[in-house]
Amino acid sequence: MSVEIQIPVALARYTGNQESLKLSGASVEEAIRNLTSQFPSLKNHLLDKKGEIRPFVNIYVNDQDIRHGKQMKTALKSGDVVTIVPSIAGGNK
Amino acid sequence: MIMADSVDLTQKEIQRYSRHLIMPEVGLEGQKKLKAAKILCIGAGGLGSPLTMYLAAAGVGTLGIVEFDVVDFSNLQRQILHDSDRVGTPKLKSAMDRLKSINPEVKLTGYETRLTSENALDIFKNYDMIIDGTDNFPTRYLVNDACVLLKKPNVYGSIFRFEGQASVFDAEKGPCYRCLYPEPPPPGLVPSCAEGGVLGILPGIIGTIQATEAIKIIIGKGETLVGRLLLFNALKMQFREMKLHKDDHCPICGKHPTITKLIDYEAFCGLTRGETSQVEEKKMDASVEITATELQELWKKNPKLKVVDVRNPEEYEICRIEGTTFIPLSEIGSRLGELNKNDQIVLHCHHGMRSMRALEILKNAGFQNLKSLSGGIDAWSVEIDPSVPRY
Known about the structure:
The structure holds 2 protein chains of 2 kinds.
Chain A: E1 2-6, E2 20-24, H1 28-38, H2 40-46, E3 57-61, E4 64-65, E5 81-86
Parallel strand pairs in A: 1-5
Antiparallel strand pairs in A: 1-2, 3-4, 3-5
Helix pairs in contact in A: 1-2
Chain B: H1 11-16, H2 18-21, H3 27-36, E1 38-42, H4 48-58, E2 62-66, H5 91-102, E3 107-111, H6 120-124, E4 129-132, H7 137-150, E5 154-160, E6 163-169, H8 177-180, H9 193-196, H10 202-219, E7 228-233, E8 238-243, H11 265-270, H12 276-284, E9 289-290, H13 292-301, E10 306-309, H14 313-318, E11 325-326, H15 329-332, E12 345-348, H16 354-364, E13 370-373, H17 376-383
Parallel strand pairs in B: 1-2, 1-4, 2-3, 4-5, 9-13, 10-11, 10-12, 12-13
Antiparallel strand pairs in B: 5-6, 6-7, 7-8
Helix pairs in contact in B: 4-5, 4-10
C-alpha cells in the first residue's frame, strides 16, 4: 500500500528537507509510524505523548481532515495523498 | 448583508469604478455595496499591504486599520504600502497616506494600538467584516473569538517562507478558526517569519486572495472560502483545497460553547495543554541570560570559553562572531558529542530565543555551565562590533 505524504515547509527541516515522501501504510497511524521511524525528531511535532494528533496540526487524507473522521485509524488505499498542515501565524512582520 | 440603496455614486466615482460597473457580477448595485461596506484590517504589514491597497482601489467605503508598529528596513522587501523614506516612522500613518493617495474617496480610520481583549469588541462592532493580517497566534485567536461573538466574517490568511493558507471563517455559515486548529502550538515550536523568513511576493498572493474574498462577500457573488482551506505553495506553484468541518465540540462556535467572552490570549497561547511545565521552566531560566558586554568580558577572562552559534546556515552566511562554533539548533541534539560538558558554554542566535531552546536541550543532556546571549548576534552588533551586519 504506497501512499504519498506531503510535508509542509515549516516541518521539512525534520525530514532532511524532503517535502514529499512515498511510504507504505494501510492506515494513517501506520503511515505516520513509518514516517516518524525514518525521521524520529518529527514525531514530537505531530503527536502528543498518547500518540494523538496535536491540536495545532491537521492531517488530511486527500482533501478530508481525519479529525472529523476515524482520526489515526483512517484507512488508506494505494495512491492516497496524506497532507500534514500545521498552524502557521505569519503575515504582518 | 450590505445594502446598496443607502449610498449613491458621484460622477467622479462612476468614472473611477467604470471597469467594475460594466461587469454584470459587480455592476452599479455591487459598487454601491462596496461603498456602503466597512472593513477592518488587522495589521498593515505583509498581508495588510496588498489587501488594503486593492480594497481602497476597489472603492470599499470605509477601511479601518489596526497597527501600532513602525516601518523597519526589513519590512520593505514585501510590505509595499511603505516607502523607503518611511523607515522609522509609524506604519499606520504611512499606510493611511498611501491609501489616501490611491483613492481619496475612501474613508480611512486608524487605530494606533495593539489589539487586545479589552478593545477588540469595541473596535470590531463598527465593521461588517474583519480581515486577519496579523503575525502571531494570540491575536489570531483573539480575532477569531471576537468575530464569532459578534457574528462577523473573519477573512483569514497566513504565510510562512513560500507557503500560504487562506480561508473565510464565518461561524454563522461554517467552521471558525478554532474548528480548524483547536489550540495554538506551544511557543517556539513553529518558527515565525522573523525567524524562518518569507518570500516577499507570498503575502502579495495571499493578501490579494483575502481582498478577493472580502469583495465577494460584500457583493454577494461567487463561492467564498467558507468551509474550505486554500493551501498555496509558491515553489511548486500549486493551489490545493482542503474541506473544513464545523466542530460540534468547538469551545466557541460549537453546540455548547464554553467561551462566551474574550479571554487572556497570551496565557492561552503560552500555557497550552501539557506544555505548562516547560513554559514555567523557561521563565525561571531568565537568569541564564547574559548581555553582549558581559559576554565580551567573560570571553576576555576565559579565552577557552565555548561560544556556540545555533542559527541556520543561511544566517551564518550573512554574518558571524569570530571564534564561535557553529551548530544549528535543529542539529544540536544529535551533535552533543562535539561539545564538552566541562566547558563553559555560551549559546547565541539572532535575537536570543533559539539559544534559550538550545540551552534547554543541553541542560537536559547534562550540561551545567551554560549561558544564552540576550538579544543574540543583533545585540553583539549594536553593543560590541558594528562591523557585524544586522539583518
